[in-house]
Amino acid sequence: MNYSLVKFMEGIVSDQLEAVAVYEKWFGEETGVTPYSREAINDYFQGTINSYELVPLVHY
Question: What whole-number distance in Å separates Cα of residue 53 and Cα of residue 9?
Answer without folding.
Answer: 14
